[in-house]
Design a protein that fits this description.
The complex is a heterodimer of chains A (366) and B (297).
Chain A (H helix, E strand, L loop, with lengths): L2 H22 L5 H19 L6 H18 L8 H21 L5 H29 L10 H10 L1 H34 L3 H16 L6 H8 L3 H24 L4 H9 L4 H37 L7 H10 L3 H29 L4 H8 L1
Helix pairs in contact in A: 1-2, 1-4, 2-3, 3-4, 4-5, 6-14, 7-10, 7-12, 8-10, 9-10, 10-12, 12-13, 12-14, 13-14
Chain B lengths: L2 H45 L5 H8 L10 H13 L9 H32 L1 H16 L6 H10 L5 H24 L4 H9 L4 H36 L8 H11 L2 H33 L4
Helix pairs in contact in B: 1-2, 3-11, 4-5, 4-7, 4-9, 4-10, 7-9, 9-11, 10-11
The chains are: A mainly alpha (366), B mainly alpha (297).
Amino acid sequence: MNKFQKAQQVIASIMALLALQSSIFYAFNYPALFFISLIATIGVIRIFYDYLNSGLFDFLLSIIGMTILMIHVYDSPPNGFWPLLISIWLYGWLAVEKITHEKNIAPFFRKLFFIAVPIFFGAWILFAWEVITIGLNIPMVILPSPSLISIQFVNSLETLWADFVQTFVRAALTGYLIGCGSAFIIAILIDKSLFLRRGLLPIGNFISAIPIVGIAPIMIMWFGFDWQSKAAVVVIMTFFPMLVNTVTGLSVNNPIDRDLLKTYASSYTQSLILMRLPAAAPFIFNALKINSTLALIGAIIAEFFGSPTVGLGFRISVEVGRLNLDMVWAEIVVAAIVGSASYGVISFIEKKVTFWHPSNRSTLEK
Amino acid sequence: MSENTFINYFKNSFLPILSIIIIIFAVWYIFTVYLNSSIQIDSYERQKIDWDFSDLVRDTMSQKKPLLPAPHQIVSEMWKTIFMIKITSKKSLIFHSYITLSSTLLGFTIGTILGIILAVSIVENKAMDASLMPWIIASQTIPILAIAPMIIIILNAFGLSGLLPKALISTYLSFFPIAVGMVKGLRSPELSYLDLMHTYNSSRLNIFWKLRLPSSVPYLFASMKVAIAISLVGAIVGELPTGAVAGLGARLLTGSYFGLTIQIWSALVMAAILAGTLIFILNFISRITLKRMGVQE
């Protein structure tokens, strides 16, 4: 344990003691009091002796504290609320810190740990969000608590589903498929001509850098208010990243592979399918991943410029106007889930297709 | 630059790009005539005017609210709003670009600093690496741009208005490429270099200042180029909900309310010019810095 961790531990215990002293006379009922005193005593003991010093105990302390706060925060913000929150936050941090530095862990648990830590961190963020919004009585207009958002989410599943279908399935997915597909085909067509490639690559790079979302109002004039105009925006947004990446990927050139295929007298198509497309796959998947988020963003923003009365972007802008922030956050949850899920699906396919690539192989070799 | 390299540059880079641009403009003009013709023919028939093809070509390129304005219409509109109007006027494109540019740069600066701090703490602290890195990546799958309007309204509720809320959107978008690029860069020193530093018994701080930080600079510049482009997008989208007062995003929004296509296109072109200039400047700085540092390209 280094000095930094020691200092952390001292502060954490002091905070726990503070929480104890301010809650002894006031609100907390007996079990909670018992647990807080437990946290404080264990913390103090650990400073002076080397007992119970594994990260697991910090983890337990943190979890116990979180439970206490969660139970009591809804009645009225208990006394000693803030010291306890700080204390268990420090314990949570210490737990992660100690376990990462632990050397004698079985590989299986180490693997499990690297999955568990981000989940623990995420849970902590949610917990802090909930406790702070409720403890400080933050009005819903500014930031609704996660519990309010989840209630709204469950209550309006039907609306959310309709919005999801309109924005994601119709606009974003259609646009994504057309944009990436046509860029892929055009990339293969212009790949044969060095002249076209030299001309198109810088222009494609430039266009990828400019704010294409701005074209949304024009697309609405051309294709109307419904999902077709949003899909058109998505097509244009996803086209150039895909084009640039595919062309770059196709020009990856391994002389040994090329010579081998030449000695086999392979045709253009054969070498394209057997050698160059697989070699370009990491680049292509990179573009597909970038585009998966771009497509969703494009579809949602295009709806701000005008849309039928359904869709994620439409709902967000309308509910913000009505100050129904819990509904807005429910829509954001939908967008976040969809965004992460589509990114995850493409990453999964990428791992299966480009299993030979160093970035996917390294974990096996270590 | 010797004569030979100049000719090579002309042949390999300038000529292909120029010809592609010419093709784009040609297609653009054809589409201008094609898309605007139906409205034009309608108005001919309503006014009972005899027309031939050359009339049609001429008139489709000079409509007031065309479906697709011809490039020269956009250029003349930009000329008018940039050079013919005082820059303090609300009609000046320079005024709007300045507003957008200032929030872009503010957001970009905060995002760069935040990204560097995050990257350093991730590389230097294992616990941060384990708990933060997955969430940094996950944060980008959330379409934050889509909720930009809401963030601005929330910040307004806190009494924050004007430049900063817009800049924060840019910050959120730009910290990610910086953080990811910097983490890669700070980890890029080869094992042999690190071993060398260890044999010198150098402290972690020393390794950081003398090895990790210098070797991360090329990565930093590469990600800054991505970040500044995305900051500009963030600033423009951030302007959409503010009641369309000022900025390129506001120009887009008012243009779409009143169907002023030429105004929309000139704002778009202006945004493209801004993006191009910003990246060009960064490129220039990065080239000079890397040359001074002895990085070979």
